[in-house]
Amino acid sequence: MRSSVRMVTLGVAFAWLALVASLGWWMSQKIVASELDRLAASAEYEAKTTARIMDRLFTEMVSVANMVARQGLVIQLATRYRTDPPDLAELTRQQRAAQFTQDPLVRKVGDFMNELSGDLRYARIYMNNMSDDTVTASNWAESDSIVGMIYSGRPYLVDALREGNGHSFGIARLNKTPSYFVASRIESEDDQPLGSVTVKFDAPDIVPYLSGSHIALILDRQGRVTTTSSAPFMLRNASALLPPGSAPAGARTNALDSDEQPGAPLDARAVTGSDQWIIDGKPYLLRHEPLSNTQYQLITLASLDHLPAMRRLHLGLAGLVASVGLLFILLCGHVIGLMVERRQDEWYAANHDALTNLPNRRNVLCHLEQLFAQAKKTQQWVVVAFVDLDGFKAINDSYGHEVGDQFLVEVGRRLTMGLRQSDMLGRLGGDEFVVIGLIDPPSPADQDQALEAMRSRLAPLLIGRYAFSECCLDYPGASFGIVSVDPSISSTQTVLREADLRMYADKQARRTSRRDSAKGDAACETGELPGHDPRMPLPT
Question: Which UniProt keywords apply (predicted)?
Answer without folding.
Answer: Membrane, Transmembrane, Transmembrane helix
